[in-house]
Design goal:
12 helices; Rossmann fold; binds adenosine monophosphate; alpha/beta; 2 domains; 299 residues
């Protein structure tokens, strides 16, 4: 495994590896089992595995959050080695944003402007889109791996990759969770034991919505109320509980197709996000559709 700090050294390290496939996992470090699940998927599917570690200042809306963000490079490199990483790209801010840097990649519309975009401000997804774009163009991987936990980030990345015709396959890996259901996050380390116990209300609220949906509830206001009741029971006040289209992030009123249920909540000083996707509603057998309608459109 080699560690490079500049785009030039990264390109040099990858020059002879382009005859095989390159898989890329971008991270902000403080690696945990969630990141490792991405590395495992990327390792399995590619000849070369590249990991980036860069705490991107431009996507932080709060200076205190940026300052408190865990930086554990020595431990991260050990994890990377264990996960079979070939090349670690760990630049500093001056390498990524040299003097005179003036370009912003900005995705517009509900996909970037609602939920996290509304709570954290426009600059958040501008920061994400710009750094992901620069990282993808620096690595030029065949496939890049992202976690479903950051569902809106995935949607923004998919949008920019499609819009800018970046030749990369976006692979989304399932959310890795602790045994009690809490989504793994670098920020979990900041939770005090009592906060950690209350934070479980977030995955529980998502489970309650999944159960209600499975029981046939289609009205999204009722599903949202279900989640809010679980959160309130644990004294967790959400920033939002939203049911949206997983691609466009337009709000969904009556569930038909797949629906993303997304929650953001502050537990103590730690801001947590999590989500689940509800499968499309199956047409009941007595829906009145013609008996042969399943063959319509050759589907
Ligand atoms: P971060 O270091 O937080 O920027 O995350 C880097 C990548 O790891 C992103 O694609 C995240 O979505 C992904 N990730 C973070 N936590 C998890 C998790 N619990 N399960 C799966 N992927 C995750």
């Amino acid at each position: 495994m080699i560690v490079v700090r500049t785009v030039a050294d990264l390109r040099a390290a990858l020059r002879d590896r382009r005859t095989g496939t390159i898989g890329f996992v971008p991270t902000m470090g403080a690696l945990h089992e969630g990141h490792v699940s991405l590395l495992r998927a990327a390792r399995g599917g590619n000849d070369t595995l590249v990991l980036s570690i860069f705490v991107n200042p431009t996507q932080f809306d709060e200076q205190s959050d940026l300052a408190a963000y865990p930086r554990t490079e020595a431990a991260d490199l050990a994890v990377a080695e264990g996960a079979g990483v070939d090349v670690v790209f760990a630049p500093d801010a001056a390498e990524m944003y040299p003097r005179g840097f003036s370009t912003v990649v900005s995705v517009s519309g509900p996909v970037a402007e609602t939920l996290e975009g509304a709570q954290r401000g426009r600059a958040h997804f501008d920061g994400v889109a710009t750094v992901v774009c620069k990282l993808l163009l620096s690595v030029l991987p065949d496939s890049a791996y992202f976690g479903a936990k950051d569902a809106q980030q995935v949607a923004v990345v998919r949008r920019l990759v499609a819009d800018l015709s970046i030749p990369v396959r976006v692979v989304v890996c399932p959310t890795s969770r602790d045994d009690d259901g809490l989504a793994r996050s670098s920020r979990n380390a900041r939770l005090a034991p009592d906060e950690r116990a209350r934070a479980i209300a977030i995955p529980r609220a998502l489970s309650a919505v999944t159960d209600a949906a499975a029981a046939g509830v289609t009205d999204t206001a009722a599903l949202r109320a279900e989640a809010r009741a679980v959160l309130a029971g644990a004294g967790v006040e959400p920033e939002y509980v939203a049911l949206v289209d997983p691609v466009s992030f337009e709000p969904v009123v009556v569930r038909e197709g797949p629906v993303l249920v997304a929650i953001a909540a502050r537990v103590g000083r730690t801001r947590l996000i999590d989500n689940v996707v509800l499968e499309p509603v199956r047409q009941p057998a007595h829906s009145g559709r013609p008996a042969d309608s399943a063959h319509e459109g050759g589907a």
